[in-house]
């Protein structure tokens, strides 16, 4: 009987031990999960390099430098794209928005949106970047950083030098890929250029929400209805009947997408009513389209390309 009691007592301890271990295991799991979402400080120095300006507006660039928790940025893969630029002529202050991604040394991308201001008289840059996830260990990254700095030449910016400081979630070392929304937005940007390439106005208008704006930044023209967009696209293609568009690159996050393209064609018709006669010249014109996407549809798009370069390429001006 004593042996039986001892055996039962031992078994009860064993089960109790298992319960304690399970409880401890759950606590450890919870601690690990909370640790993954812990906000950690980041700090560093970065340089922003303008690689392409269209009609005087910097639209594409690269980032270099070092940021703690990211390490050294891979410059040719750390990019930014302009969303909007405005100038306050009274204070000579430029306000701008952009988005892009920085590439860490191990190849993981951290995506961001950014808003900032640049005072030309003071040669002073200020602003904030908000993180929008990414790939690998940054897949679920959240946080933000403030930045201050100056430009090499306030009147003709080629490089900006900035100090950055902020907080980011410590997201561990997971190597999961892009989320579904990012993939969808990349596809929408690709379909946008495909519609222009195929001269398919039905496809083009289907990509836009019921309420949207389409801005041709070069001329300042804004189209805010699908009928107006069809007329614009049809008139553009009519002047260059063999119009084709080649995609150079597409970058997207959960809110914005940008597609870099090359417009190819021959000026066989032109737009005589606009003072652009036919010249028979073939051209290849680079440009970009930046768009905001909401619920799977484009709510605004801005096209950037250089007017003078276009006129030179088609032989209208020397």
Report the count of strand segments. 15
Strand sequence of the main sheet, in spatial order? 1-2-4-5-6-7-8-9
Helix percent band: 25-40%
Low-confidence stretches: 1-36
Envelope shape = globular
Mean pLDDT score = 85
Largest sheet: 8 strands, antiparallel, barrel
Which range does the strand content fall in?
over 45%
**Tally of helical runs:** 5
Oligomer: single chain
The chain-level structural class is alpha+beta
- C-alpha-based Rg, rounded: 27 Å
Amino-to-carboxy terminus distance: 110 Å
What is the element string, with H for helices and E for strands? HEEEEEEEEEHHEEHEEEEH
Description:
The chain is an alpha+beta fold and 318 residues long. The protein is built from 5 helices and 15 strands. 25% of the residues lie in helices and 46% in strands. An 8-stranded antiparallel barrel has the order 1-2-4-5-6-7-8-9. It has a 6-stranded mixed sheet with strand order 11-10-15-14-13-12. The protein is globular and about 60 Å long. The termini are far apart.
Give a summary of the structure in a few sentences.
The protein is built from five helices and 15 strands. With 318 residues, the chain is α+β, with helices and mostly antiparallel strands. The relative contact order is 0.11.
